[in-house]
Amino acid sequence: MRRSFLIAGSTFLLSGTLLFGMVYLAIANYVPQMAGWSDPPGKFSLALDETMLRVPYIISILFMVIGIILFAVAIYKDLTNKNLETHGTTTSRT
C-alpha cells in the first residue's frame, strides 16, 4: 500500500512540475509581445488569460499539491507501522 502511494505521489508531483514549467515557458515567450497591461490583474494574469493557460496552470498546482499529500500519507503510514513494530503491540481478544 505504501508503495502505491509513493508511485502515485511521485507521478503527480513530476507531472505537475513539468506542466507548471511548460506554462511558465509559454508565458515567458508571450510576455515580450504584449502591447500593454493594466496594473490590478498584472502582466502575468493577463498573459495567462490571453494564451488560455489559466486552467493548465491551476491543474499543475493541484497535481503538485496532490503529489505532496500522497507523499505525506506514505510517510505517515510508514512511521506508524514502524512505531507499532517497535512497541510490539499485541491485541488480545476476550
Largest sheet: none
Tally of helical segments: 3
Oligomer: single chain
**Termini separation (Å)?**
30 Å
Strand content: under 5%
Mind telling me the C-alpha Rg? 21 Å
Instruction: Estimate the helix proportion, in percent.
Output: over 70%
List unreliable stretches of 5+ residues: none
What number of domains? 1
Number of strands: 0
Order of helices and strands: HHH
User: How would you classify the helix and strand content by structural class?
Assistant: mainly alpha
> How would you state the average pLDDT, rounded?
86
- Shape call: rod-shaped
Describe the structure.
- The protein has 94 residues and is mainly α.
- It has one domain.
- Helices cover 77% and strands 0% of the residues.
- It has three helices and no strands.
- The protein has helices spanning 2-30, 42-50, 54-87.
- The radius of gyration is 21 Å and the shape is rod-shaped.
- The chain starts with a helix and ends in a 7-residue tail after the last helix.
- The model has no long low-confidence stretch (mean pLDDT 86).
